[in-house]
Amino acid sequence: MRYRRVKGATEKIERLQAYFVTGPEEYRGRWSEVFGNDHPLFLEMGCGKGKFLTELARRHPEYNYIGVEGQERVFLRAAQRAHEAELSNIRFIGQFLQRPSECFGPGEIEGLYLNFSDPWPKARHAKRRLTHHRYLEEYGKILKPGGTVAFKTDGDGMFEFSLEEFRDFGATILEISWDLHASPLKAKEITTEYEDKFREWGEPIKYMKAVLNK
Predict the structure, then answer these.
(1) N or C: which end of the chain has fewer CB within 10 A?
(2) Shortest CA distance to 92 belongs to which of 58, 68, 112?
(3) What is the pLDDT of residue 1?
């Protein structure tokens, strides 16, 4: 991990060290050792400043959570949130994961969250989208049978693309809404920073939840 772009990062890292996992590949198949228990493990790819994931961890101490975020300033704020809330069931990986299966073993993840992932709007960058089928293949390797992927976005194009990718992959769509906060779905109860912002602007939030492995 590189921190030199963040003023005072060294001091912050030392203070929040307990929340960071370096060399995540070393824990593949044995993340229970990181948390000291075998509670179900949930993963958020691109956790941002941690509003969503830390609230989940606060509400559900019976589960463990890992947030992946490659931007220094952002994941430092996420770790600070966890520290302020005195959470022991959450950790952060401060790097982008191109192949999550290198860091998590088969069936090690109970559920996965993709919240407002970068849409990479240019067609030639489609493979970088976290809902592209090459990533779905990776998620399928680490999710337990029946494990779910929950996805939120503000973009119509990104949602249409993702829905098609999930269906082509053979996923079972459990929940879907083109306007989450006008629906009765519980997924609207815990929001992200982006979600709050887009709602203020009047943008409907698109959402779906799917099972990749039957």
Answers:
(1) C
(2) 68
(3) 38
